[in-house]
Design goal:
about 110 residues; mainly alpha; 4 helices; elongated
Length: about 110
């Protein structure tokens, strides 16, 4: 059994954005920060979805797959924008912890 990576699946899993791998320290730090923000966006999207599930449905608008898909995409975009601006601190905290490990400096 071989491990073949489908580029379309990899692109979808990365949020639809292609990333280039760089060896420079500045680009490595930027890449780490972006990855931390992506992780925070995943957490925020999950939180938004759970918050939305607590709201009672009033039946005014139809509840179909199209509305569910729209809400999911909207939650994803809102979460991404939240993590790219100020966020809730997960990305920054994670970045600080991982930057120490990546740089090889242990500040304990």
């Amino acid at each position: 059994m071989s491990n073949i990576i489908n580029p379309a699946v990899a692109l979808a899993a990365s949020g639809g954005q292609m990333r280039t791998v760089s060896t420079g320290p500045r680009n490595e730090a930027e890449s780490l920060r972006k990855s931390c923000q992506d992780f925070e966006a995943i957490m925020l999207k999950s939180m938004l979805k759970e918050m939305r599930s607590t709201i009672p449905k009033d039946g005014l608008l139809g509840e179909g797959n199209d509305q569910e898909m729209f809400r999911d995409l909207m939650d994803q975009e809102v979460a991404m924008q939240m993590s790219r601006t100020q966020g809730i601190g997960i990305a920054e905290s994670l970045y600080k912890q991982l930057a120490i490990k990546v740089s090889g400096k242990d500040e304990d």
